[in-house]
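hi!! sorry for the late reply, been swamped w classes. u asked for the two structures so here they r. pasted raw, havent cleaned anything up. first the sequence of the first protein and right below it the tokens
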Amino acid sequence: MRSPYAFHSESDLDRTPVRRCVVDGTPLKGRQERFCSDQCRWAADANSRKAIERVKTLLSRRELIYRSIATVLALAFHFESLPESPGARRGHVATVLDELDLLLHLKGPNHSDVRAYTRARADAIRLAFEVQPTRHPDDARHYVRALEILRDSGMEDPTDRDGLLRYAWAIVNFYHARRDWLNLAKSLQALANVYRMHEEEDQAKQLTRYAWWILSEKFSNSRDPKALTIVHQSAFFDLRLFGDEIDRRDAERKRQQITDLAELVDTPSIWLETHRELAGHFGRDERHGDRAREELRAIEELQSANPGLTTYGAPTLLRPEIELCLGSGSSAQREKGIYLIQGRYLELYKKDRHAYYYRLLKKWREEFRLSFDIPTPVYASAILVHLPR
């Protein structure tokens, strides 16, 4: 695993760099930290201001309050377990939400019992706040955390696009109204993923770009690992969706930025995502096949050294190798890719029957005229549960 200083010599580290404006490169003076003038300071976050304003316009077009009849037993259990005093009730609800978050983080919604349990408990909390409205800020935060858990645990009916979108848009609305830019950007990326699952690529790309503008301009210089983890994920989604539309130099800068962020956070999970994204990115072009294979080897080494990593999202780790093989000019490599699809990928899908993986398997089956049965998917979620909240 690379360290933060892997690419620098000791003499490089000792040399004091010239501090420059992040916008136009002018040397900074005195107490200037990032910008040489107010004009540059204003220009630096122009894209994020534009994204925030456009999100406001999008929000005005949608009804974001969702009410439904939930499981009576789950709601009754929730009310039964609440303490008497308001403060103790809020503490109890916060503890329950923390436990549900941890369960999703450690296990993932690919386990049907985890999905059912987290969804029932979170839905009970959501309904409790809807039948007994409150203006307390802690209650509002707990309500939106329940919606986040419902979004991430997913819908049991994979075709229920509108159900997931209602949760996802309500979360965006909450953070936008409170000017919580970090969580707004994260919720925009989750919303973009919901649209991607339903093949609405233009909407997904638009929201991904808004998330990236906000994060890159407001949080790229943060030293908070939580914030940097979110910036990192936004960066690789931006590269994934726009990598074919930018020139080689811009792509190289984005790849370096993703690697730099991983070095700052330096956890096994963030390196796993980094190697996966770079393997997929390089694997799109046969000329960079060797670099893609280096990233694939790094994934294997990381998994071997960290056997405790969650298995949620396992099919995404195999996809870069499959696409590298399928894009190769070698018939043997192409056959290997087909073998991986019908073998390991299909088996991984059977353990995690997510709608997104199902759609990918169907695409490969049709493109290569394969004959194998694909069990129908059993749920759909935004695939963002591993992010810290």
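now the second protein. again sequence first, tokens right under
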Amino acid sequence: MQSVPQDCWLDVLLPLSLFALLLQKSSDPFGMVFLIVIWLGLKFFLRTKTSPIYWSLIGVIAISLAMMTHSVTNSSPSDLLLTLLAFTAGAGRSREQWRASFLILAFIGLVALFIFHIDHGRLNGNLEIIPIQALRDFLPDHALRLRKITINRSGYILGIVSILGFGLARHDQIAWRRWLAFGLGLSSYGMAFLTGSRAAAGLPLLVFLIAEIAWRCRARLSRLASPVASLVLIIGLMINLSIYLPSSPFPISNPSDKGRANVAQCFFTQSISSWTTVLTGQGGDSVSSTCKRLTEPNPGKKFGPPHAHNAFLQTLGDYGLPAVLMLVIVIGLSLRNAIQMIAAGEGLQGTIALSASLFIFGSALVESTLLTTSLQQVLSGYLLAVAWPRTAK
């Protein structure tokens, strides 16, 4: 039996960070952030022998700790910082390290069973797509979420964890691990579906289907990685733009989507109001506060959405065009690297890298995925780094 690499055992802290929600009496994220900061610090400490730069990153964590634990704003600079630090912790890891980490992180779906909470204020709209009436009647009418975490962010966490389970079930070489991973992945996806988040219900299946097609067609992808990655980015951004344009017909049929489109249009208008705001943004929450005041609230809500429901627009408003370009470039290169890994025959790591990159990109188009929830930010950065493996010396 192969031994688990040393740094992989640290990943147990990420599922355990969800248990910290059981101890919370308010929305204070200290318990979750405390375990995540320990995870990051130890990850970097183990790498200090290879490069002194990791001592500097440990210092960045220490300096940012106050922002992570005491931030009262909706959007804080620590949000993107935590994602970048998690990406750094994951970049350059070996195939064996990731294989162990995938299985450990898949247990987040098991931990979630203990902290699921019924949100009596929101119905589960995903039940409408189930064709069997008896099954619809059996499942709870109201949406479920992970304690203090919002419905969409709960769906995101569970959706991306389900990808790990399905990827291991498809490509792991050991039978008992495949069945265990499949059970964990199915459990995570089932809970993601019950959150009522449309993205969490559809995206995991869609991206894994695309990854499976890529795997079966891998012989043809060796020279097409860059064009395919660029095409995916262009198509995704164009579809997203068509949703949020003032003349778009898509939001009209759904009042909630119409409210999101109005806020997105406000975010874009405020972000390009001057060259200064285009280049540097307006800081956390400034555009959110302005658009909350200028846009009409969704039906049944006292105020409009406090964020853009779009990670790229949110980043543009808060931190400016350079940060958005960095985000787009990193996602584009991650897609390219993942396709190259699949073309090279890396079944497990390549499939999960492509699925995770597509899931993160697709979710970023319809939700401000890098806000507020520490575990969500860490999973996003850490799993985006799957597409950036250790290079040969």
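hope this helps!! also noticed smth abt the second:
The chain has 18 helices and two strands.
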